[in-house]
Amino acid sequence: MTQIMLFNSKDDQNIENTDKERSPDHLPFNQNFIFQLAEIINLRYNNPHEGSYVNDLRKSGLNKIAQKVGEEAVETVIAALNDTEQEFIGETADLIFHLLVLLREKNVSLQMVTDKLLQRHHEYQK
Fold first, then answer.
1. Domain 51-126 = CATH 3.40.30.10
2. 24, 55, 84, 91: which could join 76 in a potential S-S bond, CB 3.0 to 4.6 Å?
3. CA dihedral sign of residues 31, 32, 35, 41
């Protein structure tokens, strides 16, 4: 399991709007957080900081990022079959994070993917 530190710069903290007094187990649901996370990744790409995990991935290149997504996908499947719910959730979070990095590397926005999902939904509703 990869531990990812998301908010370690002032730019990142400006995006985060949740109540800082809440513990991680009691954070309010934020349906827009995945878009905020994509924006944090975008900020890290545009303003690389030494020691940033996103910057390390960016420097490793497309093949390594794609490989990492594959590894996380396999770990997610294994966790779904064998591990606890919390381990499955953790692996799923890792997969989504790395997929967002891959999207950024390919210059594909999360909105583009969302639009495709919405288009498919409407096509299948007919």
1. no
2. 91
3. negative
